[in-house]
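User: Predict structure, ligand pyridoxal-5'-phosphate.
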Amino acid sequence: MTVSSTDLIHHAYIPPAGFAAPQPGVFKASTVFFPSVAAMRHFEWKDKSAYTYGLHGTPTTYMLEERLCTLEGGKQCLLVPSGLAAIATVSLALLRSGDEVLIPDNVYGPNKALAEGELMHWGIGHQFYDPLNPQDLASKIGPKTRLVWLEAAGSVTLEFPDLIEQVRICKAAGVLCALDNTWGAGLAFAPFDLEPGSEVPVAVDISVHALTKYPNGGGDVLMGSVITTDESLHMRLKLCHMRMGLGVAANDVEAVLRGLPSLKLRYAAHDEATRALARWCQTRPEFAQVLHPALPNSPGHRHWQVLCHGEPGSAAGLFSVIFRPEFNQQQVDAFCDTLKLFEIGYSWGGPISLVVPYDIATMRPDWPAHLARGTLVRFSIGLEAVEDLRADLAAALTVFA
Ligand SMILES: *Cc1c(COP(=O)(O)O)cnc(C)c1O
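Assistant: Predicted complex:
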């Protein structure tokens, strides 16, 4: 007689407990077993002391959630399939027809697209505010405002806002504020303790993070997180998250868990190389402006200095340059094409340096006075040797000679 399928499926062997190794085990599930019907009736999906269904969490997702809370100084965490899904979850959970959301003018582009392409159709309005002028934010908060998005620094033009003042304005007006904390990554500053030592903590209500970037660090996983410190706010977000069926795959969670131990070292390395290259670009005649919050004349530098203290490891691996206006788009494109180590591609946070040209005119309704006129190129600095990246930039700049 050959083996029965039943014996292969309902096998009695249980491996010995106590296995310990550097990386945690990975649990994959849609179905989760209950020990009894009574337990099934009793278990509450919102309660993380037990398991009910793969979409509601596994040991693997719970572990990443807890580690991300530690990273950002929060108490509750939701995992979603991308950074953009984290933004969408917050806006959809907290906004209703008739409400308004305020968005910084230099925000991560798809946040604007969500407001313009989806929220509008649900009767949810939006206004853009000047990230460098807290009074502009204050004046735009009205009776319909339910949510304010914050971002420090803006992901393409890299203006650094007075985040502490912006949060104070939101608190004074009684409006929830959500920070896109992808740039800071929980390392450049503490989103739930922006002014350490202050009597009443200055804290954002929600921190969203594209784990796609530094936490994963490989350029090969999409994931996002939504972190809070208030249980009732977390519950509003969690209900929406559950109703929309947002889940993440265990193997992707495993990749992020594997990235976290080296996060701080990688972030500091990206930072150091990026500052060196940004400073070098400042010496080059081809550029009208170099944008990086650590450069003294970059927009919002002072606010970065106050919040992040200017120390090594307190800025991400991004900087942008604006070419002098006499260089046209074709020449700038040729420069990008000539680079050998910098690949052309979106996103950031991985080992390979990236370059993307942007057209400011299509991103900002009015060309901001603090930005030079010209074509902008954003660099994401990877983990290659900085002298090789500098040589690559210098070689590609010869297209302008
Ligand atoms: C990349 C990014 C996102 C979105 O992350 P995805 O995982 O690519 O959807 C959101 N905000 C900022 C600032 C980002 O850089």
